[in-house]
Amino acid sequence: MATRTTKKIIQVPIDDELLARIDETVGRVAESRAAFIREACRLRLQALEGGRLDRQYVDGYRRKPEDTAWARTTTRILSRVLAREKW
After folding, report:
1. What does the DSSP 8-state code read for residue 30?
2. Which pLDDT tens digit goes with each residue over 46-66?
3. pTM above 0.85?
């Protein structure tokens, strides 16, 4: 049985040019304006989360850089493994 989610109706001011572009696009992809805007919001949130995770990753390496010996070992192992891959 599918779970039901409640949706809130909101009002968002959008300039005429952006709204025209949205309406033109939803007509081409056969999707409702609301579905298009919901997906755009989801994608924006994912992008922001990805950026946050990238910054967290970089900050971690700045705090504790990778040991060069470990990097050399990893490179040797990967070069052996990748050489056997059937691309």
Report:
1. T
2. 999 999 999 998 988 889 888
3. no
